[in-house]
Amino acid sequence: MRGILLLVIAVLAAIGLGVGIEATGSSGSSRPPQANWTISSRRPLVHIPAKGPCPTSVRGDNDVANAKDDLSSHLLPQGALFGIICRYTSSPARSPFQLVRSALVNGRTAQAFENTVAKIRTTRPAWVAHCPAAIARVTVLAFGYAHGRVVDLWYEDSGCQTLDNGYLEASELSNPPFQQFIGLVAEIAPIPSVRS
């Protein structure tokens, strides 16, 4: 009987059920590499110039429009020179997705965003989460580069929060650098108190 029990434990260990064994890749990491969370276009799309102005509403828009280039491998390229943050929300006195705050981003702040966004993991969450209720609220960030390039980010800032560039997405779930990004947005462009 004891021999059968040991055999069952060995089989379970071999297939990884209930046993804390993780695969080790050739790089020596304890977890196998995970693919980036790539997404399909969620039309209609909005594109905001990095110097503004912010559109007064993004009602009806579902994501940002960017030239693909290198945006399937990272959310935000290095080298941003300036930018703008456009925050949209609703209240009893406003229609959904109306502009409530905009803020220009200088070179130093653009670098802070670059450094923070570069640390955010872009792997799809591997579990089902119970999210807070989502409200009609979104933030669009636009960053300007040399030679006129602009990269926009779509930040779903309620419910289970996500960030994407139209090709690659990240979730706040178990993603500590995402919390730093949230704090940076709130510091630069806080949403005003809701008034009826």
Order of helices and strands: HEEEEEHEEEEH
* Average pLDDT, all residues: 80
Q: What sort of overall outline do the alpha carbons produce when their principal axes are compared?
A: globular
Secondary-structure-based class equals alpha+beta
Number of domains: 1
What count of helical segments does DSSP give?
3
N-C termini distance: 72 Å
pLDDT < 50 runs, ≥5 residues: 1-33
**Counted beta strands:** 9
| Helix content class | 10-25%
Radius of gyration: 21 Å
Assembly category: single chain
Strands across the major sheet, in which order?
1-9-8-7-6-4-5
Q: Biggest sheet: strands, sense, closure?
A: 7 strands, antiparallel
Beta-strand share of residues: 25-35%
Report what the structure shows.
- 20% of the residues lie in helices and 25% in strands.
- The chain has 196 residues and is of the alpha+beta class.
- The protein has one domain (37-188).
- The strands form 2 sheets. Strands 1-9-8-7-6-4-5 form a 7-stranded antiparallel beta sheet. It has a two-stranded parallel ribbon with strand order 2-3.
- Helix 2 (107-119) packs antiparallel against helix 3.
- The longest helix is centred in the first third of the chain and has 14 residues, at 2-15.
- The radius of gyration is 21 Å and the shape is globular.
- The protein starts with a helix and ends in an 8-residue tail after the last helix.
- Residues 1-33 have low confidence and may be disordered.
